[in-house]
Structures are given as C-alpha cells and as structure tokens.
Amino acid sequence: MTEQYRTVAREGVHEIEISKSRFICALAPAATEEEAQAFVARIRKEHPTARHHCFAYVLGADGSVQKASDDGEPGGTAGVPMLQMLVRREVRYAVAVVTRYFGGVKLGAGGLIRAYGGVVGEALDAVGTVTRQRFRLASVTVDHQRAGKLENDLRATGRAVREVRYGADVRIEVGLPEADVEGFRAWLADTTAGTARLELGGEAYGDA
C-alpha cells in the first residue's frame, strides 16, 4: 500500500470567466466510482442549462483508477487537462466537474485546454488539500481502572485514538504508523505494567 496520499480537504466551488465563458469547477472527495459519478450527476442537476459538464476523477491511493470526460467539447480539450491537473498535483480519491456556460466566443483547442486545466488548479488552491497517512489499526484492551489515564497518555503522545468502547473491559482503537508498532508494544507494556492486551488489525488511512 502507498504510505500516504493527498486529497481535497472538502467540497468546494471555484469560478473563472474567460472571453465571456464561465468555467465553474466543483471539487469533492470521492471514495468510489459510484460516489464520483453521483457527484457529477448532482452538479448536472444544479446547472441544467449549461452546455458542458466535463469531469475527471482519480481514485486509489496509487491513482489506479482515472477517468475523464469532455462532455461534448473537442476531444482531449477538457477532461484530459482536468485529469492531468489532478495527477500533477498528486491528488487522489477526488472528483472535479467543470461546468461551462458558453459566452459566444470560441477559445480554440489551446484556450480550452488552458481554461479547463487552469480552473481545476485554481479550485485546488482555493479548496485546499489534506494528506492522509497509512496506519495499522490496533486494539488495546485494558481494565477500567487504567483506561482513563491510558487514553490521556495515548493522546498526549500523539497517537491517533479512533474509538473507545466500554464493556467488561475498555477497548481503545488506535491507528499506528507501521514503523511505530514494535515501539508502541513496548511503551504499552511499560505504561500499563503489562496488563493491557494489544491486537493488531488491518490497515487504513487517516489524517497525517
């Protein structure tokens, strides 16, 4: 798995005007192709009178899924430069839709490529990006007496506490960088006098 990836911080919209044509870029995080396509469909509904809704998305921490559409613009002048901008900025799990309201002046192939790629780049700057880091999921089981202090110690040492569940014992779910697993095991044994149980789970991504 890729150690980390960058994605858009939130949904957002950015607009530019070139030769009386409006280019409105909507960006959103997307975990799956279904989410990306649903976002494209939503933007189409929001702008029913626009002539073009070009889109591009990149999924997978390694960018393994890439799709682009020119939606009626000349081939290669819209979706591809949008996709290239996402890839160049190393953005993953994200979808961009550029809605164009034609202003009556033809921009030519070069003008369209600059406009579609450019508005995505400006939208990324406006909306911002976040880095997601690969974590190993770990479950710590500890008695109620030690749980409160252990949770505080975990947070104080910068560990990512994902969930705390109370039952007969207390289970604290944490995310650990792979390189920290053995060090964490030793730290946990020392902190809880060997009373806590550690179970390692699968992998996930979280905020770096």
Give a written overview of the molecule.
There is one protein chain. The protein contains five helices and ten strands, in the order βββαββαβαβαββαβ. Strand 8 and strand 9 form a beta hairpin. The model has no long low-confidence stretch (mean pLDDT 94). By secondary structure, the protein is of the alpha+beta class. The longest helix is centred in the middle third of the chain and has 20 residues. Helix content is 33%, strand content 39%.
Keywords:
208 residues; 5-stranded antiparallel β-sheet
Task: Summarize this structure briefly.
Helices cover about 35% and strands about 40% of the residues.
Q: Secondary structure elements and their pairing?
A:
Elements: E1 4-8, E2 12-18, E3 21-29, H1 33-46, E4 52-59, E5 65-69, H2 79-88, E6 94-101, H3 108-127, E7 129-142, H4 144-156, E8 160-166, E9 170-176, H5 181-191, E10 197-207
Antiparallel strand pairs: 1-7, 2-3, 3-6, 4-5, 4-6, 7-9, 7-10, 8-9
Helix pairs in contact: 2-3
